[in-house]
């Protein structure tokens, strides 16, 4: 895969784990939107529908992009009731890693679904193949 850094993630934004104050949630959401606006990255977006405030991030860069994981850590600090998952590939090897946001903390986990990339989702390079 080379130096490509691939990432796919989502966050459900909640100001607290006992999220019952709509004014606090609105203030929290405005802070999240402002932070994302400062990032200026087209790979990050926000969505609000049916009472669910969410953030998405996905894309590929030619090298590691620290803002991706920093986004999850920032939301965890400022909206500790939030939860979400971030899949990354290419930081240290070709396999995926899962970062979990839960109760304000971001933890790193092995991916059981798409890794090992070879042979789970890709074939090994074979120069004799013509396809």
For this entry, give a set of tags.
single chain; 131 residues; alpha+beta; Alpha-Beta Plaits; 6-stranded antiparallel β-sheet; 34% strand
What does this structure look like?
The protein has one domain: Alpha-Beta Plaits. It is elongated and about 60 Å long. It has a 6-stranded antiparallel sheet. It has helices spanning 22-39, 66-78, 117-120; strands spanning 5-12, 44-49, 52-61, 83-89, 96-102, 105-110. It contains 3 helices and 6 strands, in the order E-H-E-E-H-E-E-E-H.
Task: Quote the CATH topology.
Answer: Alpha-Beta Plaits
Instruction: Compute the number of structural domains.
Output: 1
Q: What's the story with the biggest beta sheet?
A: 6 strands, antiparallel
* Total helical elements: 3
Based on the structure given, which CATH architecture is correct?
Answer: 2-Layer Sandwich
Order the strands across the largest sheet as they lie in space. 2-3-1-4-5-6
| CA-atom Rg in angstroms | 17 Å
Computed structural class? alpha+beta
| SS elements, strand count | 6
Topology:
Layout: E1 5-12, H1 22-39, E2 44-49, E3 52-61, H2 66-78, E4 83-89, E5 96-102, E6 105-110, H3 117-120
Antiparallel strand pairs: 1-3, 1-4, 2-3, 4-5, 5-6
Helix pairs in contact: 1-2
Task: Give a concise summary.
The protein is an alpha+beta fold and 131 residues long. 27% of the residues lie in helices and 34% in strands. The protein has one domain: Alpha-Beta Plaits, CATH 3.30.70.
């Amino acid at each position: 895969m080379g130096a490509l850094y691939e990432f796919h993630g989502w966050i459900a934004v909640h100001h607290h784990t006992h999220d019952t104050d709509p004014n606090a949630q609105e203030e929290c959401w405005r802070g999240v939107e402002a932070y994302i606006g400062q990032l200026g990255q087209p790979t990050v977006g926000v969505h609000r529908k049916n009472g669910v405030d969410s953030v998405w991030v996905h894309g590929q860069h030619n090298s590691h992009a620290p803002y991706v994981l920093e986004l999850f850590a920032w939301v965890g600090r400022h909206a500790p009731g939030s939860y979400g998952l971030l899949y990354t590939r290419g930081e240290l090897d070709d396999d995926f890693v899962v970062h979990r946001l839960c109760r304000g903390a971001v933890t790193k986990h092995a991916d059981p679904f798409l890794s090992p990339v070879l042979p789970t989702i890709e074939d090994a390079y074979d120069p004799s193949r013509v396809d």
